Every structure is written in structure tokens, then in C-alpha cells.
């Protein structure tokens, strides 16, 4: 017990005194004024009863008293009495009294009595047993107890040490035996019902479950929302409560709304979650029609009601309920409507409930997770459910959270929070979304940890707090179960069966989650007992005992045959328990595939089980690995669906074989080429092609991050098979993820252990994990060739490629060297395809080698410039092993002199000399003599040497990079650079990389200066910190590349050597062919960088072509540069733009065609002390040909032709600002369809309309949307009554605004729809109105086009990874997209922007072909086997000159390469890539 915990029963026991002052017995306080005792303790003769008076004092040594007490309740038959004192007694506190049921056997207990001779009290130590027939509970003297119960203990409280609460009152003893009896709490309450208000229930908090109707007295914090929902139900036949997961929808409906509806004279029927919706509805209605039935009579009544429902007689049943119950109507509650999305068997019942004409007197109240609203609206029957009134349940405020925490505890006077704990809990909850389940679970656990009625800080911390309690309990339960079920004990796990128990538990938990199509967030799934093996069922019961799972009995007769069901207690378990979250992520591909399989099966069943909807060849191929490895995780019905598909496929093949036998070969070719299945109907063929397309697209998504070339292949095949939406998305996702990648290579036998490359990166040799060797060659058109080379029994350890790519080879485990001549495509006299010469082997001496995995130590081998000599630096035996290829001999190894120890090696300018990096130095060694010629650099941490051997780069212990070139006196020094690894140089020594995870490259001037260049964009491969980066910067003509690899894939990433502008805010004009962009660096050398920023206009043309600078203007004197997410104000015709030059409000109006100034204006400067509601700075937008600005709270309208102000309004004078701290910075002003009007929101629920000329809010135009708003956007000009609302947490809705003068209320047309369910980022939203009046929303990873009354996109695109859409063209067809960072330090595509042209699948296909090397020509047969599609149909031949590199001799331009102008080719479909400030600062 900690020091601040009160002793059990301290201050809670009273002595009951006889008239003569002797002690008659004990009593105990349950509130500060009420005490309980035995009736026989008070029985002093006639006159004892309610209202009579007795004397009591405090049961402690020298305690105060006596005090008078009045008998409030007197129940001699049950021997219970309740006393009341006039005021709280000094030095006392109530004791916690709890009901426990008959589950106390073996609990240790104590009580304090006052027998004769011990009027100051004596303790009795006890062990509790069970109740007797008369309801008393037996307890016995503990083995270590010394004092038995005798007279004087009657009325004393019995304290349960395990529960830390009072469980009953001493009533009698078996004198002479160590046995006594107590009246348990439930009997005390039954005898004196007034005690019900003071008895602590086992816990007033529901844990992970929802509050139920019987919990209504303990339900706090939602009074306002409960009242509003109740009013909606009373006024509308259909009401839907929408909200995010974990916001308390079920609780507010069940514990808040339902009791109020009953009080309003309505009967309610809450439908339980079950697969038998009709049976559950019948059971609920039957209990209302004939409530007193049980057993057979009840089952008969339910069957009768079920038949009536099936016959469509719901109106008659409602009439019966109204007549028999005397109510005004019936409310049917369907909680968690999203559960019905996949319940095909519920179709008839849904039609009954949500038909076009609901029966009179019927109201239906549903709850729905907001992220499932689009899927619900796609279902014709369920759509009706959400077309009535809707209420969006907002996130709780801090005060509401405080009510949730304190309200239930405040109902139990004997229990309290320790000082400061409530504030700590409320602060921990903060503004986190979906936290209510975690809070309720934590409070429930905290309640169970109470000691002497106190909820303590120590217990809260021990539990892990709000955000850690659930994860901690889950992990503890996992460890305990796997240890005990496996034959061990929790304290010493590791029994023989522990691994089996762990597998069973993981399999169970994986079954209980699913990944709905189109979502990122796994949700819980209900599984029936019949679907679980016995071992998994036992695991489920163990987790249910810990309240992590819920096991529900069959809800209906129909459910009985399937047995009980089990599910996660709440979906919060998936997100907060790291183990389960990791499993869900690890199993994402399986879960996504399995959910698609379930959906396909349901589609097949709904259509009447036609053969043409069974899985086809592609779908079965996709299922094959899952059937092989996860068969036990696949339900019987789904496995049967796959079996039927295989049987059908076998029948088709038999038919096809019969056709082939009877026809000529020419006819067979015609049939196979003309149709996939010649005997099928056209409709069946189309269905099959679409099914195959979806399956291939799913496979593409599954391997997009791990094997990009295979993902591109699947995407191409999917689109070729059928241009489904899924195939379109697969191409787009490949385009987005790898559009900045030059080429990707996979399929290396044994994966990638080491790799070597030519200086231009067109010849790459990979050694695998078991010594296999794979060669990749890329020709001048970008066509990729792959050849897996024979290697025999001698493992390849060190691969090598000569600088010119003419020789490839490897050093084997035995010390031999194997090499080949390589004729490269495109070389004079070479064949069309690369040709590998015969292998030659030079025997050698075995030496110690590094056989480790994917190794960053890639400079253990070097090849001379002429390709004649190969050297290996062995760090294990401190020797240099080298071979002379032309002579065909292995030369004697060179041993380094002490104290040096070899690590890495490069050839110097001559083939006889090498530079060797040791632990601290860089040495110059003569290979022939073995002589140490000198120390090139001392006290270094890493080094690099250029391919020509002329330039050396080293890092020193101070993280300074030093670069020196032979014959050049001046060194280049770059401080604070070497943090990530060894530097890297290009072959000519003109560029150096710092070697960090995200490499930074500097251009070397030759005179000691270094200029930092834009960072190379990474991709999904490089976001993994396990990737390998080849330690050299490759040069192919005038282009430079990094070569990177993961365990299975190799990629080339281009490094820009042009110091392009750093871009800020951007805007697309017209159809997206032209882009406005700010740069925060001045490019006007003549101006001396005055102002430091520029505005540029680009023609970005069609994807994959050149972009051209159309205009440029230096923003002289500008002190404000719009940042990446700032909106550039442009008029409707895209002819004028507003350029905010200073934070003080100096604006220049420019012509967008030339960027020249039209006029300038000075708006009211933002105040130094702005109103908290206002946004900082100046906001502006065009309304027709006028500019509207908002500075602080001042709104002004301007004539952009003359620069004159037309109107000025201070919103502070109109009373539209909010002083609520939650609305700080939330003031928004947007254009209104009426000229000279604006719409204003302040973070609250209302949209107001202000007339600028009159300087007033327009009466009758205010709209209450019911919940907080971030920003409101009116659709204009196509539908002036159409309003889009964005909520905090980023959900959007569409509203219809009443016409001016109309009394009609505003009407929500769709939503709320979450922009990015499950996202950890707060996405930027890019809304727009297309020319045809439809609404377009781009955010996170999706673009959707919507009709004005629907949240279901009529067209949509999924880019596959989270990011921000930075701009949308006026047409809506072109967007600028920038990805989110994977982590702050990962090598990602951070800082890149991709031009996305919707439906430009030709470009997406071309990009997929390009980055995969136009498909490996040498793998044509394998590709056709995998995709059932010829290679020629997937990719055309690469265009002539694709990837061709000019200037390969290195002599072009001043520095040996072509200078790239802004109009030169760049990575296809990209705009200038960098947005980081100061990237090009000279060093």
C-alpha cells in the first residue's frame, strides 16, 4: 500500500451505543450522512423503528461523539437498518460498497468489531466462502487470524482485500466455531432499496463496449447531442447518426436517445448485430407485442411474427404495438449500419425497413461510421437509410470529456479521484480523435484498481494512461495465454506448446479483422463458432475473459445452428495494440485479397451462382499462394467458391482440347487469338476479362513497393485485359510511385547480395544470396535485357564490371575469377542484342571473403580503366588479391604493411597502382612490387576515388568533406557534411555526393567552390533504410544517376546537375498546359538578388515532353513569397493574377500571359494585435473582375483595372467573429454567387452572407450546418444554391441552400464523407467545379468527381499513396501532386511534384513500360505465362533514341556535359522538383 492510500475502513466505522452508553454493535458509513447496521443491534425494545433515535460515535480510539442518529429504514425481517446523522461527522469518510454476486470464494477479508472488553475495536481476519440457502454468505477465520467473530461484530462491514471494497455486513456467528456470516451487498440493497443510489456497481464504465439503455444513469457528456437527436427522431421517419469510429455513436443512441424516446411515448426496438436480421427484428417486435412470454410460447410467437414480416405485414404489427403498449409509434434502432453492407441475406428485410413508403408510426434510427457513407450510398436499399435527416456526432470538447470522467464516479459517494487525476486524464485525452473507447477502457480498469474508494495517480500510471492501458492489457493477455496454453507459466514462458499457442492466437485475431475494398483501415469482423477450430475457440474464450473479445450467444433461432459468435471488443484494438497493428499491416496483402474474394463470392451468390462469375484463371492464379500458405485462414464457403472455379476451368480446358483436336492449326490460332474462351458468350467473356483485370490490378498493388517491375507488368496486363477502374488505378499508381525512376530491374536469381556496374549504369551484374549471377544490359533505346548466368558449384562472391561495360565477371568462393567479354547493343559492329562471350576462368588462391547479406561494403573489388586488371581488398587477411585478365593469371597477393589494414580499393591513374582505404588512412600501393608509395590522406573516416583515378574525396572526424584533384592545388572543403556514410564521385570527378541516406550532391568548380544541387527524388524502394546505394555517381552522356538496390530490385535514379529554382506556390491555368510558379530565389544576376524571389510561367505541355519557360519576372522589393500550400489568386478567365508582395498588403495585379504589372494596390495592413478568430496575413480571391481581400477582420473589394477600392467592411463590426478558443484562426471568407457578397464562417456551425456594399449581414441568409466548419465553398456559377462544407478532421458535405426569401431549411445533400480515413497526415484538399457543373475533390490519395447530391464519385482515381494535390486546372483534368514523406529522414520522393492528367492512360502505360525497361525482352515467355498476354501487346517497342545519351565522351560544354536549359528534357511528367529552401546555396 502506498503512503497516500487510506487504510481499509479508516474513518468509515461507527459504534452503535445503548441507552446506557455501552457498545451494542457496529455500523458503517455509505455516504457522509447515511450508515448501515443490523436491525437487531438497534432493537432495544418497544419504540424502535423508523424515526426513532439512537446514539453513535466514531469507531476509533478517542474518536469524537456521541452523536444522535435517526433510524431511516427499519427491516427487522431481513435484519437491516439504515441510520441518518444530521451532518457529516468529523474525521469520517464513507466506505465503498459494491455488489459482487457469488464469486468471492477464497478472497481474503477483514472486519472490525467491538466485543465486550474491546470497545476500541478488534480486527478479525477472514476467508470468504459462498452464500447459503438463506442468502447469507459464509466466511471463516483465516489461518493466520487470532480473534474469532463474536457478539459486538454485528453490523460491521466486511472488507474484501482483493476488491478493495466492502462486500457485506456481519450478521451472525457460529459461536464456538471459526465460522460467521454476512449479509452480502445485493441483499442489503434488496432489503433497503434506498441503498441502491450509494452502492458502487462493479464498474460504471463500459470498457470497450458501448453504454446500453440500462447504463443511462451513468452516461454523461452528451446531453446536448442526445436532445438534438431525439428531436430529429420525433420529427423525421429516418434519422442517421454519423461519426468517426470511436466517437460514441452507439452509446449516445442506446444510453442517451432510446430512454428519452421511451419517455416521449414511443416504443423502441434495438436490433442486435446478427446475420439473421429478419429473425432479430421478429424477436424484438414479439417482445413488444407479448412481453411476458418465455420458452416454447416465446419461440412460437417469434416464428409467427417472422412469417408476418416476410409477408410484408409490418404496418399491422406496428398497429398492434401501438394498441397493446399504448404508445404513439415505434422506433427501430439499427446500430452500425455498415455491418449490413456485406449481408446479402438481409436484402428482403432492408426492403421492408427502408422501402419508399415507410409505415405510419414507424421511425428508424441508424448509426453509421462516416467513412462507410460512400459504400452505403452505392447500395440501393441502404442508400434510403441515409437519405433522411442526419446528425454528425462531433468530437467531444474538453468539458464533455471531464463530464465523462467525473459523472459516473460522482454517483458513488464512497469513491473519488485522487487530487489532480481528473485534470491529468482530460489532458491526456486532448484533441485526439476516436479516443473514447480507450478512455472508457482505462476508466474501467482504473475503477477495478481502486483502493479504499480512491482512484489513484499511481494506478493510472501503472495501467499506462489513456493511450497505453489497452495496449498494455492486450500484450499482457497475449503473453499470459501463450505461456500458459503452451505449458509454461507467465513468469517463465517457453513451454513446448508456446509457439503453437501463439500461432493459434494470431490466426484467430487475423480472422477477426478485414480490410474493406477501397479503404486503408482494417475493421473488425464477426466470426461464428462453427468457423473456428477448438484451439482458436479456447483462445477466444481466454481473451473474452479479459474483455478484449466479445462472445455473443445466438441472437435468433436461425443463429443457433451456427453457435456463438466472436469479435473484437472494439476496432481500437487494431490501431493501439502494436502487435495486432503490425500483424494487420503484415497481412495487408492477404486481407485485401481475401476481402476481394469474399466480395466476388457475394456477387456470385447474389446473381444466382452463374458459372461465368466463378473465379477465372487469373483469379485462381492469384489465389494459389494464399491457398498454399494460408488455407487454414480461409473460410469453408470461400474455399468452396475457389474449388468451383477450378472445376469450371478444368471443364473449359477439356472443351478447348476437344476443339483443338478437331480443327486445323491455323484455325486454332485464329480461335485463341480471337477470344479467351471461344465457346463462351460475349457477355461471359467480358465478365471474365474484367474479373481477370481486377485480379491482376490487385496483384500489382500488392507488390508495388517490393517488386516494382512486376507491379508494372501486372498493371499493364490488367489494362490490356480490360480497362477497368482498378487497372487504370494500377497504372496510375506505378506512374506516381516510380515516375522519377529511370529504370527498375528485378528477377535476379537469388535476389541481390552485391552488384557492380559500368560507369554509365547500362551494364549491371548482380550476385545473389547463394552465389547466383544475373546480368542486366540496357541498350540505347532503354530496352532492358536480362540473362541469368551459369555459375556451377563455385559461388560468386564479388561481381565486377569494367568501366566501359565490355567485361563482366566475378570472384568465386574458391578464389577463382570468372569473366566474359560483352558486346553491348548499339556499339559499332555489335549485334542488335547484347552478346556474352564464352566464360573464362582464372584459377586463384582461396582467401577469406565477406559472405554477408546485402552489404554496403561494395568497394572490395575494383577494375582498371582498360578492364584488364581486377583487384579485391580482403579485410580478413589484410591482402590485395589481383588478376591479370589478358595474361590469364592470378598475380601474387599484396600484403599491406603494419599497422595498416585494408578495407576498400580503387585503381589509380595507372593499372599498376591502387588506392587502398584502411581504418584511418588512404594509401597508394604499387601492385607489382607491393610497395607502399605513400599516404594520400591521413586521419580519415571514409573515402572515394573517381573512376579516372584523378580525384579523391575523404571525410575527416569533424564530418568535413575534402575533395582534391591531381594537378590542382586548391582543395574543395565542405564542412558539416559527412554524417551518413562514405562519399561518392562521378567517373570524371566533377560531382561529389556526401554519402548520406538521402544523398546531397555538390558540383565542383575546380577552384575550391562547391555548389549544392537539388536532391535526387527517391521512391518506395529507397524509403526502406535497408536499401543499398552503389558507392559511385554514374554518368551516361550528360545525365547522372545513383544505382540503388533492395533485396530483390535494382533501380537507377537520376541526379539533376542543373541548379533549378526552388518552387513555392503553384497554379495551373486553363486546361493545365501552363503553370504559374513562385521561386524563393532570384534568378536575375543583374539585380544582385534584390528581393530574392521570382515569378515564373511554364508551358508544361503534354506529359513526357519538354517544359518551356514562357515568362519570368523578378519580384524586386518583395518580402513575401507564397509557400507551397498557399493559393494563388487568379480570375475566372485565367487572365489576371494577384501577387502579394509584402505581408503589409502591397499587391501587384499581373497579366498571366506575360507576368507584367497591370496595376498595384495597397490593402489595409494586418493588425499587430489581431482578433484570435482571424487568420494571420492577407487572404484574397477574385470575384468576377473584382479582387476581394481579407486582412485581419477587414474585407475590401477592389477594381483591379484601376487599383481603386470599391467597398470596405470590418467583420468585427458585424458580430460575426467567434471568441471561442476552439475557433482560433478559423475565420474564413469565400466568394458568394451573388456579386458583391461573401460567405463567412468563423469555425462554428454557421455560414453567414455579408453584402459588402451595404456593410451588413444579409438577413435570412444564415445557414446552420449543425457542426463546426473549417471552410465553406459555394459552387459558382453553375448552381448558386450548392454549398460544400469542410469539417475539422477533414470530412466534407454537400448542402442545398434555400432560395432567397424561401422558408425552406437548408438541406444536406450528401456526407459527411471522410477525405482520408485512417490517415496520419492532415491532407490538403483541392476542391474545384468542373465546367459541366460537377464537383471535383482531390485529397490524400484520391481524386473523385461527384454529382451535386451524392458522395459516391461517378469517376475516381486512386494514386495509391498519401500526398497533397497542390493545384487543379480550371478544367479539372490536370493536377499537381506531391507525396508525403515516409519518415523525416527516409530517402523518399519528398520535394517532387508530378503532373497528373486524368485518363491519360497512354502516358501511364508508356511510363510503366519505360521504368521496367520496356519489359525484359529475354523474359517474353515467362511474362506471357504469368499474364496470359503476349509481351508485344503490353508494351510497344521503345521509341528510337529513348534514353540515348549524347556527349558520352565527356567533352561537351565547359565542364564536359551539356548544360540543361529550362526547356530541355526532364523526367517525364514532372515539374521542377525541389521545394526546400536554400538547397543551392554556395559552400
TrEMBL record:
Q: What is the lineage of its organism?
A: Bacteria, Bacillati, Actinomycetota, Actinomycetes, Kitasatosporales
Q: Which domain of life is it from?
A: Bacteria
Report domain Novel STAND NTPase positions: 204-610
Species the sequence originates in: Streptomyces cheonanensis
Which residues lie in Acidic residues bias regions?
1443-1456
Q: Give the region (Disordered) as residue ranges.
A: 1427-1483
Pfam families the UniProt entry points to:
nSTAND1, Trypsin_2
Give the SUPFAM superfamilies listed for this entry: DPP6 N-terminal domain-like, P-loop containing nucleoside triphosphate hydrolases, Quinoprotein alcohol dehydrogenase-like, Trypsin-like serine proteases
Please give the name of this protein.
Answer: Novel STAND NTPase 1 domain-containing protein
- Alphabetized InterPro entries for the sequence: nSTAND1 (IPR049052), P-loop_NTPase (IPR027417), Peptidase_S1_PA (IPR009003), Quinoprotein_ADH-like_sf (IPR011047), WD40/YVTN_repeat-like_dom_sf (IPR015943), WD40_rpt (IPR001680)
